[in-house]
Amino acid sequence: MPRVQFEKIVKTYGRVTVLKNLDLEIEDGEFVVLLGPSGCGKTTLLNLLAGLIDVSSGRIQIGGKDVTDLDPKDRGLAMVFQSYALYPTKTVRGNLKFGLAAAKLDHAEQERRIAWAAKLLQIEPLLDRKPAQLSGGQRQRVAIGRALVKQVPVFLFDEPLSNLDAKLRTETRIEIKRLHDETRSTIVYVTHDQIEAMTMATRIAIMNAGVIQQFDTPDAVYERPANLFVAGFIGAPAMNIFPATISTAGGKPSAVLKGVDSRIDLGGYAFATAPREGDSVMVGLRPEHFLAPNQTDGDVAARFSLPVQYTEKTGADATGYFRTDHGLMAVSVSPDRIGELRQGDVAALGFPHGKVHVFDAAGGQRL
Amino acid sequence: MSSIAEASLRHSRSVDETVAFPRKKKRISGRQIAILIFLTICALFFCVPLYVIVVTSLKSMDQIRQGDIFSLPWSLNFDAWVTAWDKSCSGTVCQGIKVGFVNSLEILFPSLVLSIGLSCVTGYALALWNVRWANSFLFVLFLCAFVPFQIIMVPLIMITGFMHVYGTIWGIAVVHAVLAMPILTLIFRNYYKGIPQEIMSAAMMDSGSFWRIFGEIILPMSGNIMIVVLILQITSIWNDFLIGLTYGGIGTQPMTVILANVVITALGEANYNVDMASALLTAFPPLIIYFVLGRFFVQGITAGAIKG
Description:
heterodimer; A: 367 residues; Rossmann fold; CATH 2.40.50.100; 2 domains; six-stranded mixed beta sheet; 8 helices; 19 strands; 23% helix; B: mainly alpha; 71% helix
């Protein structure tokens, strides 16, 4: 199983630079998710690895071999596409077989692999059907099967679940995770869905504007976002971010939050560099870390009292939105208790110790 | 339909007066009448001459000499058709128009294969592969579609002569392929542009071979457009006169050229019934193609590459 290395990758289209000097190393057998908003360059990066487009400069290595100038078929990759891209005139069997026949495998081996993949993905009854006769979920399985039969060391997935309905998406997610556990192949997976990224990845590369913002485990990007972009991108509802000023009065660091008339205790926060009095910072508070509204007795890092703007309830989750001078503050509330929050009422909110995130106001980097 | 449903229908019809929001009955409007008249006139433009040709071909020369071209034949008489097919004279050869029919068939197949094959592959390359200067090439091709054939006729004679195909069936096929290439390439290229990029990407990762992808993936997806192009080409090759006349040898004259000879070279009086029958015989094959494949023609023009 090889590692995949991107070195100093630059990709420009005319005057537009999509990827700027990008470095990324993916270890053996990893499940790496490239996550980012539309247009961040994640699909471009995947296509560069696949060889479907050429780099402007830089080098791509797979298993220590420079593949930058190799044709897609010679790179030892298989790819699953968003629209499945099944060959419409071929049967499922024909779809699986095309790549194998092109690789000049002998007939028995082709049949063996098709049987193996069909069994693994439970598409045996579909083998003689055309793609038009399959449902979306079935097409997706065939597309995965077409990649699997090639038995390559590196698999690429380009938003493979985005055309499926919610239930099927969850099922297929588990399926792909299981396939990774079974085959131990290296997987590079592009998505804009953070749930997919958080559930499947061994490491997530979060990209924005052609730059990798953070490359770390799902837990790490959630618990220690490297900068404001990652902090705002990971987590739903999104992290509340407020401008604040550091105060070190009495040797205990705290931050005075603007717009919410509150102060948050930063005692115990692992600062990378010691904060100074008067520093401008951004403070991030995750909605799900707030204590239940109006139950803020005891020791908390910060207290707020804010009017309710509106509430949202989505079955298992509920969110209250509170009005501040810096937009709305989202707070996750137990769905049983969301009914207690009435629009316009002022509620007391508490934020516990040790959950706050502090970022440099100028550069957005984590402090 | 079940009797209950029928009964309810009858019932609903009987209570028409009590319908809450009755719709006005649609009368034929003046505008529709005008359109109908216009369309009828258009149809007559084609139908009247056709009628004359058909009835004349069935008349005897005696009746034709009466001069009433719109009259129906006195008796159904297919002699002229038999003569046209079997015995009419093109120059000094009196073997009928069937010679031309065979020649036209012999011209048709190589011409079809050459012209469609060439433009199909060119369109595929231009649409789905990274070809340098592809757009400039397309533009030049597009300009070529407007060059009148007569301008390049003489140079083409020299070129086909140089290729040692002048005066043979292959000479005619080459010229047909060259002349059809601009428009057919554009048609194929636009059709193939409609194939999703991801299918091509998948094929590139699976095989990467130009011909294998063409043969196994793209060509099987081309059914619709093939029928359109086939109809266009069969019609234009069959109906062609100038290329066949100019590039064909004595033994390879297509049906249209033979037809012209039959009509022009009558000795003594003009046998109008034989001429008309010959013309109809010559026109039949494309007509049959239209009747058989016409349905697919419309489908093919409107359908994209991907179904379902």
